[in-house]
Design brief:
This is Isoprenylcysteine alpha-carbonyl methylesterase ICMEL1. This protein has 14 helices and 8 strands. The protein has helices at about 15-30, 40-50, 75-140, 145-160, 160-175, 225-230, 250-265, 285-300, 325-335, 340-345, 360, 370, 390-400, 420; strands at about 175-180, 190-195, 205-210, 235-240, 270-280, 315-320, 375-380, 405-410. It has an 8-stranded mixed beta sheet, with helices on both faces. β7, α13 (about 390-400) and β8 form a beta-alpha-beta unit. α1 runs parallel beside α3 and α7 packs across α8.
Length: about 425
């Protein structure tokens, strides 16, 4: 905005210094106003009182600082008032800067103290939540014995970590592994395929169902088996399925059946031989696979039952460390920490134990025709298996033999529940 120009005349040198100071003060308070000094003292007083700034100065000082000619004691008083106000402003600025520096230092210390308190509070709350979680698990039936065994399993996993890293690298980065092939419409309806290096002709196929106490099963658990069998020119399909509480045994068997159906009907597209398909399961997976196989045989003998795969497409069934009579295992699992209430929930209640106990079901006269459709069954078990006793496989094999099925149990002295699965010489 252009400055206001106030022309006046000047003859007396005595008023020149005062007039120059007034010009400087006016320009500092309002830069839009300038004064040309060329007047006598009386003219200067009139000029000062007649100046009207373009912008209001109420933010700097009040209107009492500018007075009329009759009220003013003279230019000396006006100048001294302005100097006092300027000195006061400078003192306030200096004090404010000093207080700001101290406040910043105080704020820094306060933030550090606040951070320490936050860390301590977070640690206390974490401990509280952990303690309450353990208590809740106990109320739900998962006692300290089960928790201790779960922690022991974690420690055991840490000891196996170097081997897991090697297998994990093969699983995630090998070109011989095809992960996450969809076989159904449920979230866990996926399977992994492990291929041999050579591609000369159709390969035999193993459809594998992993274990995990019906709770923590996952298709990646079969990566070691897949790697070892693929090195022996066999295609391996590791089938995933819903676990408890996402599903119960009925859902697990349904998922396994869909996965087997996919393998039987589509494996030729991946270089597999549809006439050489074998079914295998380990631990809980062995139980699920046996239930699936028997259920499929019963469907095939029923009237009006639609099926997407046939038991006749399975050349043989291999069960590793499985349990096949739930009535015999309820109390055993309860003593091992898998409490009765949880186990019965997994199995759809006590009334369903018979339906999902293959050893009991094959003895039913109504399933005699279905049992005759079963392929050869070979059951492997270690005598030092405390998770599922070796008698589970031995008794099931004997029962199958009595009802006319080609069955055999092979026991390994001193082997534990996982030895048959992890050790290479058992593949």
């Amino acid at each position: 905005m252009p400055s206001q120009i106030l022309p006046v005349t000047h003859h007396h040198r005595g008023t020149e210094a005062a007039a120059m100071l007034i010009k400087a003060e006016i320009e500092r308070d309002d830069p839009t106003t300038s004064l040309l000094i060329s007047s006598e003292y009386e003219d200067v007083e009139k000029a000062i009182t007649s100046i009207k700034p373009v912008l209001s100065r109420t933010s700097s000082y009040n209107n009492n600082n500018i007075t009329s000619p009759n009220d003013s004691p003279g230019l000396g008083n006006c100048y001294q008032q302005r100097r006092r106000r300027s000195a006061s402003d400078n003192s306030l600025s200096s004090l404010s800067g000093s207080n700001g520096s101290g406040a910043a230092s105080s704020a820094g210390g306060s933030r550090r103290h606040s951070f320490s308190k936050d860390v301590g509070r977070a640690a206390a709350e974490t401990f509280l939540v952990t303690r309450l979680s353990f208590k809740l698990l106990r109320y739900l039936g998962v006692g300290y014995r089960w928790i201790v065994r779960f922690l022991a399993l974690g420690c055991y996993s840490l000891l196996l970590l170097p081997g897991f890293i090697q297998v994990g690298c093969h699983y995630f980065f090998s070109s011989q592994v095809r992960r996450g092939i969809v076989y159904g419409d449920q979230p866990r309806n996926r399977l992994d395929l492990y291929f041999p290096k050579s591609s000369d002709g159709p390969k035999p196929v193993v459809a594998f169902i992993t274990g995990g106490a019906w709770i923590i099963g996952y298709k990646a658990w079969g990566s070691l088996l897949g790697q070892q069998l693929s090195e022996r020119d066999i295609i391996v399909a590791c089938i995933d399925y819903r676990n408890f509480p996402q599903g119960t045994i009925k859902d697990m068997v349904k998922d396994a059946s869909q996965g087997i159906s996919f393998v039987c009907n589509n494996i030729s597209e991946y270089g597999g031989d549809p006439d050489r398909i074998y079914l295998m399961g380990q631990s809980a997976g062995a139980h699920i696979a046996a239930c699936t196989l028997l259920e499929q045989a019963i469907k095939e003998t029923g009237e009006g039952e639609s099926t997407t795969w046939s038991v006749s497409q399975i050349r043989a069934y291999f069960g590793l460390s499985g349990g096949y009579n739930l009535f015999d295992l309820v109390d055993h699992f309860h003593s091992r920490g898998l409490y009765r209430s949880i186990f019965l929930s997994i199995m759809d209640g006590e009334e369903s134990l018979r339906q999902y106990s293959p050893e009991v079901l094959v003895q039913d006269p109504n399933t005699r025709h279905a049992v005759s459709l079963l392929p050869p069954i070979i059951l492997f078990h270690g005598t030092a298996d405390y998770s599922i006793p070796a008698d589970a496989s031995k008794n099931f094999a004997n029962t199958l033999q009595r009802v006319g099925v080609r069955a055999e149990s092979i026991l390994y002295e001193g082997k534990t529940h996982t030895d048959l699965f992890l050790q290479q010489n058992e593949c």
